[in-house]
Amino acid sequence: MQFGSGFEASLKLGLSLAIAICLHDIPEGISMAVPMKNGGMKPIKVIFYVILSGITTGIGALFGAIIGSISEQVISLCLSFAAGAMLYIVSRRINPRSK
């Protein structure tokens, strides 16, 4: 959602978000693939599941572009929701006792 909303806000913001999230997705894909491969899963199934998990980013980008094209206020709401969700996830992972 942040991709689409970012590109609706400005090209520079959209590209910045795309680069940051793509760089984040590399270690995420590796952290998914290694345990599956070490667990004995076939490489083709590992690749399939990693790609399947990455497809949700594209679906969210399309959803964000459609919703974000409504108005600037909607773009602001989409970006703030995405930022809040990321902060919540990170804070729960770094400090599980933060409630």
Number of domains: 1
Give the helix tally.
Answer: 4
Measured distance between first and last alpha carbons: 25 Å
- Which structural class is indicated by helix and strand composition? mainly alpha
Cα radius of gyration in angstroms: 16 Å
Low-confidence stretches: none
Beta-strand portion reads: under 5%
Shape: globular
- Average residue pLDDT: 80
**SSE sequence, one letter per element:** HHHH
Helix proportion: over 70%
Number of strands: 0
Major beta-sheet overview: none
Summarize the structure.
The protein is mostly helical. The protein has helices at residues 2-9, 11-38, 43-68, 72-94.
Walk me through the structure.
By secondary structure, the protein is mainly alpha-helical. It contains four helices and no strands. It has one domain (2-94). α1 (2-9) crosses α4 (72-94). The longest helix is centred in the first third of the chain and has 28 residues, at 11-38.
Summarize the topology.
Layout: H1 2-9, H2 11-38, H3 43-68, H4 72-94
Helix pairs in contact: 1-2, 1-3, 1-4, 2-3
Protein traits:
about 100 residues; mainly alpha
